Amino acid sequence: MLKAPDEGCRPLLYALLAPGLPSGGYVVDCALTDISPASKSASARRELWEWTESWVAEKRRSAVRDEPSAVTAEEPSVVTAEASRAAAAEETSVAAAEEQSEAAEEHEAPDDVQEAEPPADVA
Length: 123
What we know:
mainly alpha
C-alpha cells in the first residue's frame, strides 16, 4: 500500500523524535513493535548469513569470469572511452567553476558603492 509523503514520513519522524524509544527498536505506524519470532532465531540468522556469503561469493566468481581481460593494445576502444570520460569530467569541473565565479561577480557590490558605517552609539 502506497502512502502520501506526509503519511510515509511519520514513522521515521516518530522514531527520531519520540522520547524513550530503545535503541534498535522496530517502529511500525508510529508504534514500537516487536520483531517476528523467526527473526529472533539464532540458527535462522546463522543459516541466512551462510547462504548470503555463498550467494555473494558465487556472484563475485561469475563477475570475474564474465569480466573482460585487462586493457591491451588490441583494445583501444576501452582506453578511448576512459579518456573521454576523464575529459568530460574535467570539462564539467571547469564549467562549474566558471559558473560559480560568474554568480559571485553578479552579487558583488559595484566599485562606486561604499559600505555603510555602523552608528557610533553601537557598542
